Amino acid sequence: MFESIFQNIRNSKPIVHCITNFVTVNDCANIILAGGGSPTMAHHKDEVEEITQNSQSLVLNMGNVHEVSSMILAGEKSNSLKHPVVLDPVGIGASKLRNETFINLSENIKFSVIRGNISEIKAIANGKGITKGVDANEKDKVTEENLKETVEMAKMMSKKLGSIIAISGSIDIVSDKEKTYIIRNGHPIMAKITGTGCMSTALIGTFCGANKDNILEATACAVATMGISGDIAFKKMKIFEGGTMMFRMFLIDSISNMTLDIINGGINIEEI
Amino acid sequence: MFESIFQNIRNSKPIVHCITNFVTVNDCANIILAGGGSPTMAHHKDEVEEITQNSQSLVLNMGNVHEVSSMILAGEKSNSLKHPVVLDPVGIGASKLRNETFINLSENIKFSVIRGNISEIKAIANGKGITKGVDANEKDKVTEENLKETVEMAKMMSKKLGSIIAISGSIDIVSDKEKTYIIRNGHPIMAKITGTGCMSTALIGTFCGANKDNILEATACAVATMGISGDIAFKKMKIFEGGTMMFRMFLIDSISNMTLDIINGGINIEEI
Amino acid sequence: MFESIFQNIRNSKPIVHCITNFVTVNDCANIILAGGGSPTMAHHKDEVEEITQNSQSLVLNMGNVHEVSSMILAGEKSNSLKHPVVLDPVGIGASKLRNETFINLSENIKFSVIRGNISEIKAIANGKGITKGVDANEKDKVTEENLKETVEMAKMMSKKLGSIIAISGSIDIVSDKEKTYIIRNGHPIMAKITGTGCMSTALIGTFCGANKDNILEATACAVATMGISGDIAFKKMKIFEGGTMMFRMFLIDSISNMTLDIINGGINIEEI
């Protein structure tokens, strides 16, 4: 599965257009480069359609609630060009504005993939929010016990919204309406840096930009690559007795040094 | 003093709402996480009241002079909820706009803590600016010789403004109208990276968010934690023969690895 | 050549005013500090003239197409004060908005230096764009084969625009209408992190701010310093088996640790 997906990225070096928040925008640009893509973070409404036209995928991050009209312009253009469009519904459930923004975006744009933490995905599923800030609520956490019902929720959402659903956490879920990948890579320290979620979404955009005909597997690969890099980065951080910022460095470093062999050696993925 | 303050952060994991500048926003979010809090950097005027309502403290950073109306909405809401509100008057004295912004904010919001470098604090005290850019002016520097008069100035400001005054520099001062902590930790290299001040303010917001009934000591602890981390980070940087960016990494790393033992072993604090 | 340029930076510690994009703004501020300057990133139209007045140079980065009116206010003020003004035409050629923004800026501001990748510089030379995203187009690449004609293009542009032209790539070119420096330092990995170009421009602003009477050599020095730091950073990254983020850290670290001896030992510069 991974071989052709990686090869397509190397061959096409996809340009990934991101309209994203200003907190983690630098990390997102760097992880796209590390993953083999070329980032463009243009968000002015007078140029986003042109920029998207020359890109291979579009990443919309709701952390930037100031640029909704740009997101809609870029999203509609991407849809018309059949570019993959990846949504990160950052903080949905945390404010009425975020909930309305999601509705506004989803009424105008067809998303190829929606990636969020479990609280964000539940906020979409329930049509109401239980998110605290931008981090997942502890009581929503995906465990082996509630995994089956969470997968069912993801499948139903995918059927209803027509998007692949990616849920990030200690257990990652990537699902369309029929097929689901369960990925058990990554480390809890990933929640101790800002931007892990945003970066994961940006990497999905990179993988999908080069694999338009295989969005489900491209998304699963991106999520697994992120998790495996988290595993490697934590070990390296321990060797040098570092903390969360050294972890972030090694996380993106590991993406930039990723090979098929490292993936195959580290991946813990299950298809159900 | 430190034990209960740290324990309260670990127990409550405070959500810290920051309306801050786009230069150092990523560093601020990461230091809040490293310090044991959960950051939310929402700044759209249509959601800041809701976001603040679900947070435990508010950090306002005047480096973002575009979002003053959002700051006032969030500040008024925080005041009504008795959340700690921490102000960083970045660049006050450097332009009329900054001076007017400070007046505008202080007429509408009661600040629990105001933290700045000595030039910024003097600009407030004098009602006129002598700041050059965003860095402290060399001739304003706090020394052992002018320490006593600087402490008196801080006490008077605290009495007048009803806020704790925190002055950052080679000697740090944290004072209310009666009691003052003098902290002699940290390293001059802290002035060679952008964001040390902003990060210090964000960390104060984290410590205060979990210690609402003890703002003075929480602020002193945050300032000391920052200084001790600077000491550790400089030593680590030297081992690896790095420069300013490695220093920044180890600065936040040291916050993320901080323990009560490290604090007690490294702190140089005096109460007067 | 380098000795006096470096000495002037150490002596004057120039304040560098940047109006720049939010993707790489933190890196730009940090490289200015590492290079010996003091950054101020103020971009509100109501304060940029005052801020520029108290600065020694101005850096305008077209990645921020939202702040063109602020750029013009600051640029006109800088011109009137004879401060060096450095333009980074990020993404020119990628959209009509960028092309119009360049025209708008160049009709109102006299630039001391314009620094871009070869695709951006060609877009200016040709009056039409061939840029893909923000990275240089592979087919535009400067090689030993097309070096002579590229230098001629730079000289002609310099004559026409009255600005020094700096072209970044595997071979760097810094030229006025008569004299050209060819610099063969740096490493291809510099294209694998975001912000190398923006940082290079910010460093040029720092060097020029302290060397107003010698802009050509100051620009060449800044470009060479960037390249030599890239060489050093790549070697260090290899020692620690890191990736692109460790490279970025060591890149800015090397600027912060730069000495005249390191420069003289590493530089590969040719004057034609």
From TrEMBL, chains A, B, C:
Any Pfam family: HK
MF GO annotations: hydroxyethylthiazole kinase activity
Catalytic activity reported: 5-(2-hydroxyethyl)-4-methylthiazole + ATP = 4-methyl-5-(2-phosphooxyethyl)-thiazole + ADP + H(+)
InterPro entries hit by this protein: Hyethyz_kinase, Ribokinase-like
Role of this protein: Catalyzes the phosphorylation of the hydroxyl group of 4-methyl-5-beta-hydroxyethylthiazole (THZ).
Pathway: Cofactor biosynthesis; thiamine diphosphate biosynthesis; 4-methyl-5-(2-phosphoethyl)-thiazole from 5-(2-hydroxyethyl)-4-methylthiazole: step 1/1
Keyword Magnesium: yes
Organism listed in the record: Clostridium aestuarii
The keyword Transferase is assigned to this record: yes
Gene this protein is translated from: thiM
Membership in a protein family: Belongs to the Thz kinase family.
Record-given protein name: Hydroxyethylthiazole kinase
EC annotation from Swiss-Prot or TrEMBL: 2.7.1.50
